[in-house]
């Protein structure tokens, strides 16, 4: 087709794309004009401004007039388009790419600011560091006397390289016996006994900050408990409220108590009466039922922030009762979902005096009926060090900017998604739940075919926008709470961690409570299919391997599906296919009903969890379409506890590791949901290795019956080896041949004969393979028991099937289930002769593989298989 010239031809070729974009019909011609003339005129209307101290950018409308809704459309170029596996390589190799992306994502400058830090006394940090600690202590004594105090009550000794010996020599308790607040943040304190000894001499302490000292890494919870006993009046410890918090801690957060006013000068029965605004966010508060936290003590309280607190000791009704008592309370900030439940509407009904909730006017909430609202979530901003290369900074930050699409034509859809970054103008659009602009990808085909396609994004106003307004888009357009919108915002914003941790803990406890009883192993009840007239069983198959290697005289291949006794196919046979093909209930099929509970990854995990809870052989697994909150909680809990946080994301129903990703980036995990439904599974970061390389093992399981459960494990199995030496270096996560083992379809396949592998593996690790094999057998039996127990409807007397079970060993040689595959690729089983492991080491000829598979399933034989 020649180049598109007329608007009518443009609409004809791009009609589906125009409809999918959502662009109003009134803007179609304007889009055509700008595409054909390559008009990028956004710079005449918009301005990109830095914000968040230069760590983010925003887009402002700067044209002289306002911009009415649906009045214009703008082209946005794509600055970087790539497949995920190529991202790191391109950043390293494409000239100028890393520099442009780093500038666009605001990670091109060192994170350490050159601005001189000034403390509350007008003394620069540089000046402080030049003074020795003794001088600072003397200055503090003089400072206290100037303000009329007999002794120092508030002492800040931060980032002064104070070590354990220096702390002892300071003898703080002798110099400052009445000290109320002490900050030793950012020093070099290491010894738990010395710190506890010196701190607990200060009997009047109300607040103690030891943040960012090595001692906190060296201690357990006992240090805090000992300090609490030695300082019974302590209300704040390392920025968190103790269970003993009261008037002083609330006064500190309410601005009553500070360095210049550490305590009431005169006896005051109600020192908090002047408090109108109280920020209690992220204080680890477990209960708000407290004598000091009451309307009697704070009658003028009008603004309250209780975000980031677990409040586990209070029920929702108790919290509502406390808050309702503050009749002057106008604005409230709280985690949603959180301790007050999951509904903004319910909060407003229970605390009716509020005029604003989480920064949104009550009238607006009631008008829209939104249950989950938040106008003040803090954005995730990239973090990096000065030594970190630009490519690494971009890889970490890009998930805040990426967008995605997948190409398709009349014949097929592309298996891997395309990711892209909009240009500087498009990338400056920040998120809003109530956006004034909309963005959509658009594929322009100037010659009417996919080969000529050029990808853009198109931008248009969906509200009336005034000069100077910030231009925003909805990062989660079309995604509501039914699709876990609040949880998915975690990719872009700091959402309440403790809520997600609670969701994870509830899920984990539920799994731990599960137990199952193994199904009894019964003698075979399935019957042989041998024909009494001696005729061969007719087999219809669409698999070349079966057609080529099934050579037993008891079977004969037929091309007529309706004439077959046995149908052995690689396609899914459902009721519609049966009707269309004329398949009857008297024909055997190599599929069991509801076998999706095994062969689809999300159903497999769910089946096992329902039956067994959380067995050791199944790594933590989450269906991201239904359990994203629990996954986020698990991630946060691991991060809190300093545990490994590497995860692998797998599509529900794709083979050959297509669209599979390994990452420790939470934003990446959430964003990868956009390329299709996935499970997220804890990565086996310490697998057993063979000569330093990762491997997995493919086992073949034959199922004669589900009720009773009749399973057989083929004697033949094979190992699949990665090509590269295993490493957890973050750059290796982009190397397929390091972290994946399936090389049949890409990379170089290095086949290892099974007996050789077993012998060399035993020698390398000084283990007995038969011990490992027995653990694998027990695990596989448990997997199929789970399916038979949870889904008894799988049973069908006219079904016989073969499944591939992929297993990995961890560094302790314990088996871990990877997946179960329907109609597995058995090329290696047919191609290579091998020997049975154990027993007499009988020869297993590859050309006989399907002969003994069919013999087991349809003739009740057990040659080269063993029952499970």
From TrEMBL:
Domain called Tubulin--tyrosine ligase-like protein 12 SET-like: residue spans: 69-114, 388-492
One GO CC term on file: cytoplasm
SUPFAM superfamilies (UniProt xref): Glutathione synthetase ATP-binding domain-like, RNI-like
PANTHER family per UniProt: TUBULIN--TYROSINE LIGASE-LIKE PROTEIN 12 (PTHR46088:SF1)
Protein's recorded name: Tubulin--tyrosine ligase-like protein 12 SET-like domain-containing protein
Native species: Populus trichocarpa (Western balsam poplar)
